[in-house]
Amino acid sequence: MRHRIIAATAAVLLTGLVPLNAQNPAKPVPHLRDGMINLGVSDKEKGLWIPRDRTDLGRRSTLAPVETIPFQPWAKALYDERQETELEPHSRCHPSGVSRQFQTPYGVDFVQLPEEKRLYIIDVGGPHTFRVVYMDGRPHPEKLVPSSYGHSTGRWESNTLVIDSVGFNENFWLDRTGLPHTERLHTVEKFTRTDFNTIKYEVLIDDPSVYTRAWSGGFDFRWSADTEVFEYICQDNNTAPTVMMNGNQAVEFTRSVVP
Question: Which of 36, 127, 138, 210 is the most buried (most CB within 10 A)?
Fold first, then answer.
């Protein structure tokens, strides 16, 4: 082993080769003019954020291993049913909040407007909608009309963006695999740009109607360079052949479909 290490070192010195990481050092994390971390594009770089889902866990959600999620029995039964039907509202052009927002086709864009004390998270694919995050310190309203994105307030904790959200409706899945929730859902999301190409995403899920306790999960985003937001039209009458058709005939459901 020692001889191989010495030989490899000598080869590097003789040929002028350097390790790959030294050839391509990571770019520094960009900042806005006020010194805050920039989660979006800059005047020098363009790109979008794509999720790096947790695909190495076997039977899983995209947030955490399924066996670690504290489902109530009825919620676990609904989750299991969704693995069979795969009838997700997002595929029928409904906007999707919380973690599912970051799993839309073609990525998302963060638009920070410090002078207006707001931040926007824009979906490229799917319904092509956007989420507003209020950065002015306001509290959540006492009365809210439930919506797919809920009401979000944000703040910076050092270099981490923290978003607190309530006021959700039940018209979306929490993640691509069908995690359920109710209007009692309360989430706390954290976004940390650990290097130029990576955002660490963490989320606290608190919904006492669905889970026996609050729990956490997450995944990483990866930077997709040289791409920009483009027009994407979601057509509500599209039919997904693998889940909505029987041969060439449309499926007629005899019972209501739970979103």
Answer: 210
Residue 259 pLDDT = 40
Burial (0-12, 13-18, 19+ Cβ within 10 Å), 72: middle
Model's pTM, two decimal places? 0.80
4 found inside a domain: no
pLDDT digits (tens, 9 = 90+) for 208-254: 999 999 999 999 999 999 988 888 777 655 555 454 445 555 555 45
Shortest CA distance to 105 belongs to which of 197, 222, 232, 244? 232
pLDDT tens for 131-177 read: 999 999 999 999 999 999 999 999 999 999 999 999 999 999 999 99
Pick from 187, 160, 162, 193: nearest CA to 175: 187
Cβ neighbours of residue 162 under 8 Å, at least 6 residues apart? 154, 155, 156, 188, 189, 190
Domain hosting residue 244, numbered range = 47-250
Average pLDDT, the chain: 83
Q: What angle do CA 159, 163, 165 make, to 5 degrees?
A: 175
For residue 14, tell me if it sits in a domain.
no
Give the closest residue to 121 by CA, choosing from 182, 201, 64, 184. 201
**CA 259, CA 251: separation in Å to the nearest integer?**
17
Nearest-5° angle of CA 108, CA 230, CA 95? Answer: 50
Domains: count for the chain: 1
Helix or strand or coil: residue 11?
A: helix
Q: How many residues does the chain have?
A: 259
What Cα–Cα distance (Å) separates residue 243 from each residue in 29, 79, 82, 225, 247?
Answer: 42, 17, 12, 33, 11
DSSP-assigned letter for residue 83: H
